[in-house]
Amino acid sequence: MNTRRLAINRLRERLPADGAVIDRFIARHGAPIIEGERATFLFRGAADEVWVRHRVVGLPDPLAMRRLPGTELWAVTTDLPSGSRVEYQLETRRGEHYERFNDPLNPIVAHSPVGSSSVCVATGYEEPSWVHEDPEARKGEIVEDSLQSKALRREQPVKLYLPARYTRAQRYPLLVVHDGQDYLDYAAMKTVLDNLIHRLDVAPLVAAFIPPRDRLVEYPNHAPHARFVARELVPMLEGRLSLLDEPTGRCLMGSSFGGIASLSTAVRYPGDFGSLFLQSASMVFTDIGTDHGGGPAFDPVVKFMNRYRAKPTAPVERIFMSCGTYEPLITPNRSMVPVFRGTGMTVKYVEARDGHNWADWRDRLRDGLSWLFPGPQKFVYE
């Protein structure tokens, strides 16, 4: 697109502009302004400096905004390829006071365990229909349970998803979901399961949503956690529910550190699980030295990954992987695909123009679940 024809540049050509002109400009275009593969972020207000804060690898962070002369309107334009979805906030400086907040001109907001962010969506991105409740879809059930874990030395809660029409006359695959409560809260996973099973994209399954007490301790190759999952949780569920009694019917799932928990548990108990669903897994490693740049929390991750890369094994038969192209973990995730395939495991890997966030992981659920647990509809069209 000719940058001279961008809306913000046409406004610049009309300066000076009074408040009424700025009002009409914002009312007409909204914010951010998406034009082709360009996005213009706006802020209106008195400030000494304004920035767009984000976590998009490849773009300067922060993006400095510039005030249009004679106005209180600030703007910055950047590239935004088709299909992109970006979470961001604005930051202002007034004297010595700095403030960071969601974009007041943008009503689209995403939520996560650490708060909320504004969302900028490019041309071509569409929120999947199956992330919203479908009144025609039969509803599964969430059952709260717990078990006394010797491995973790505590009472461990677990939430179980039972599909609609669950019956002991049928045996179901088991999906163990790390950061389970977050998947339910921020990835709408119960609704997604209800819809995808109803649409015959995914076979009926049982899901165990497990929350950590301290994920930075329990998830990076933690022996007690792996023992809890493989030797306590799975046997308990197989004793209580009608599950497939074979490794191909068991899958470990997780995002970020939860992906490391899934992989390391499978490596510690090879052959116990048939598949892994890894989303933006924190598979950070070093090829030389020990400086990985992730801070102390990543030390056990790097130690595990370096050891695994030195002697790769095939603890499962299949792995589904997803990662956002705008997140720092894209490079290690891409790098691990041939390593996994080299062991003989079947790997399906997908990317999206998104970041390290729950909406990205939610949007990839259909891809992963329908490949790992295909329903009748998948067999018809594939």
Automatic annotation (TrEMBL):
Protein species of origin: Knoellia koreensis
Protein name, per record: Enterochelin esterase
InterPro entries for the chain: AB_hydrolase_fold, Esterase-like, Ig-like_fold, Ig_E-set, Mycobacterial_A85_antigen
Coiled coil stretches, renumbered: none
Biological process according to GO: carbohydrate metabolic process
Alphabetized Gene3D superfamilies for the sequence: alpha/beta hydrolase, Immunoglobulins
